[in-house]
Every structure is written in structure tokens, then in C-alpha cells.
Amino acid sequence: MRILLGVSGGIAAYKSVLLLRLLREQGHAVRVIPTAAALRFVGAPTFEALSGEPVSTEVFDDVPGVQHVALGHGADLVVVAPATADLLARAAAGRADDLLTSTLLTVRCPVVMAPAMHTEMWAHPATRANVATLRERGVHVLEPASGRLTGADTGPGRLPEPEEIARFALAAVEDRHTAGVASQDLAGRRVVISAGGTREAIDPVRFIGNRSSGRQGVALAEAACARGAEVTLVAANLPESLTHPLTAAGATVVGVSSTAELRQAVRGAAPGADVVVMAAAVADFRPARTPTAKIKKVAGAPPAPIELVENPDVLAELAADRLRAGQVVVGFAAETGDDAGSVLEHGRAKALRKGADLLAVNAVGEGLGFGAEINDVTVLDSRGETVTSVAGSKREVADGLWDAIAKYLTSM
């Protein structure tokens, strides 16, 4: 793949060297386009040595070659890391005052920007407006990480780690390619998908939660968009960096926190849906009472017990109610084996109990399921019979599950 790595002038520019090496080690050809300010942090010889390609900052460095056009037309991916507040502002305004911003106006490939700046600059209304403008144009702008900044400052504005930037950027290219060749077997279909993990408040600062990253649900939404569906994603406590590519692709994203909020959002969208996929990790229980003030620790006294009450079973409700005639309801069952049975045995019991048309059963635990890059699911029908098994990346699992759902739709 031919990648352009833009580097703007911030202290985090040193991480762009690590990103460059990572991309090169994965076999990609990388041309670095720094701003003049970036070269005050990392010198051109470093970029040239690691990329094996010349470094330019100005369109006048090779006038006969018309570099900004040639580079833009030949790129498969553009990554800008770090993207400073100044770079975001110039890109949003359509400026073309150096080689990097000029090239950004000529590319037709995915563009990923990884911001890095002080917290106050990231939170400033001008920066937020620039980010919104870029995202509306289809640019993937990551959310910055939180942590130590320059000096003693901490907060949101830290450049994400190179591995995270590379993973996100390469996935953006994969999604574009997939969208170009994917079957449009969901064209005209409306789907509702829940993703993430719900949180139940103990007090204003504490909650009961789970380890779900939401990536499997987001992958399901991305795959459905690529196959032509009209998608609504009910996102439980997911960062914008994970969901904004879906918004750019035309999906509707509804943010929620608790099980009650998720239930309301899913049931509100379900009457118009052909398929409802409950991929979110929904809390089975919630505190019976939630005080309005933080629970204080009393020296020498044991903590007060937290009484739990059962949450509504959203999946079972949807399967029983069928808020639209002919609606297909799909659930997920994250299980661990125990003395009472294996993962699959617990999954089969749940399939019979829930009444969903399809149930994707997967093992969870250390290095499995939640937060992992790969997944392995067995899809059961409402009788607990195996329909199919899918393993691989979460996007591969998503496509395999949609294959099963599409067959189910056509058989109805």
C-alpha cells in the first residue's frame, strides 16, 4: 500500500517516527510529508532514512513534478500524526500553503488525522468546529488520548499510540475496499444494532460495568453499512473515535449509558427495523437505590451492602414482542464454562430461554472476547441447533454473522 504520512509541528512528532517504522515493517511504502514546523522537532534525515524516500515541505521543491497532485493521486491512505490545532484549522479551511495541505486537497483515498495538542486547545470551540467540519467531509479524526502532556499538564490531547493509529488507519482502507466489493444483500433493509457495555450507577461517581469494548457491535454496523443497510447503532459508553466513521458512512448513532436508556433507544428504533442485533453487553442487575451524593468511606466501619435488583431482559422482550412483522431478532451470549456446563451448553440453554431467531455464542475471559482483536462465535437458532461457526477478526465475524442473517431473511 502507498501511504502518505503527514507530520505537523508538535512535540508528539517524535511518535511519528515510531509510526513510520511500524508501517514500513508491515510492508507498506511510506512517503513522509512534514510541515516546516515539524522539522524543528524531527529532522528530515530521520524521516528519509526510515522511509527510503525524499522529504519535502513546499510545493516549490519539485515544480516540474507537481508533487502535491502526483502524491495525492498515487496514495492509498493518508495519515496525519500528529495533527496540531493549526493543521486541523488549515485543513478545515481548505488552505494550500505548504505541500501537506496542498496534497490533502488532491487525495481521494481515506484520510486519518490523529490530533495532539494541549487540552485547552482541543476543547476550544474553534478546534471542535474544525474537527466537525472535517468529519462531515469524511475525514477520520481520532479522539486524542488522555494522559501526560508537555510539562506537568495532563488531560485529553495526547497523541494515541502508534499501534492504535496504524490499526485504525489500515482498517479505514479495508472498510473502503470491502464496501466496494461487498454484496448489497442488505440494500433497502433497516437494521438496529446495540454495542458496548451498559453502566449502572452506584452513586454519582461509581458504577457497575463490564469489559465490553463495543468493537464487535461496531464491526457489525460497519459490515451492514457496506452491504447496503440503513443502520442505527445504539452505542453504550463508546468513544466517538470508534463510532464517528459510522456517522460519516451515513449511520445513525445513539449514545446511551444505562440498561434502561439502551432499552428505550432500541425499542424506539426497533418498530422500523427488519433486523435487531443485540450485541451490547447489558447489565443483568442494577443497584436498587442510587444516592445523589458520593458514598463516603467511614474509618473502621464496613462498607454498606449494595442491594441489587434485576434489569429487564431486553433481548427476550424484543423476541417476544416483535415490534415489526417479520422482524429478525439476533442476540449475543458471552459465556464462561463452569461446573454446570460448557460455554456452548450454556449458550444452548440461553437460546431456548431467550427466543431470539439467532444467538451468537462466544467465550469470554482473559484474552478472549471482550477487548480482544479476534473473536470466535457459534451461531445457534431458537432451538439451540448450530447454524454456523465463524472465527477471525471482528470484522470477519461480523460478515459471517450477516451471511447467516441474510439467509434467514430470504428464507422467511
UniProtKB/TrEMBL annotation:
Q: Which residues bind CTP?
A: D284, K294, P312, D313, V314, L315, F332, K350, K354
The record's function comment reads: Catalyzes two sequential steps in the biosynthesis of coenzyme A. In the first step cysteine is conjugated to 4'-phosphopantothenate to form 4-phosphopantothenoylcysteine. In the second step the latter compound is decarboxylated to form 4'-phosphopantotheine.
Q: In terms of domain of life, where is this protein from? A: Bacteria
**Which gene is annotated as encoding this protein in its UniProt record?**
coaBC
Keyword Lipid metabolism annotated: no
Q: What is this protein called?
A: Coenzyme A biosynthesis bifunctional protein CoaBC
Free-text comment on the cofactor: Binds 1 FMN per subunit.
Question: PANTHER family from the xrefs?
Answer: HOMO-OLIGOMERIC FLAVIN CONTAINING CYS DECARBOXYLASE FAMILY (PTHR14359), PHOSPHOPANTOTHENOYLCYSTEINE DECARBOXYLASE (PTHR14359:SF6)
Domain named DNA/pantothenate metabolism flavoprotein C-terminal: which ranges?
186-407
Chain positions covered by the region annotation Phosphopantothenoylcysteine decarboxylase: 1-190
Please state the span of the N-terminal signal peptide per the UniProt entry.
none
Q: Which InterPro entries match?
A: CoaB-like_sf, CoaBC, DNA/pantothenate-metab_flavo_C, Flavin_trans-like, Flavoprotein
| Domain called Flavoprotein: residue spans | 1-170
* Species for this entry: Isoptericola halotolerans
Give the family from UniProt: In the N-terminal section; belongs to the HFCD (homo-oligomeric flavin containing Cys decarboxylase) superfamily. In the C-terminal section; belongs to the PPC synthetase family.
- Taken from the record, one Pfam family name reads DFP
Q: Which NCBIfam families match?
A: coaBC_dfp
Positions the record marks as coiled coil are none
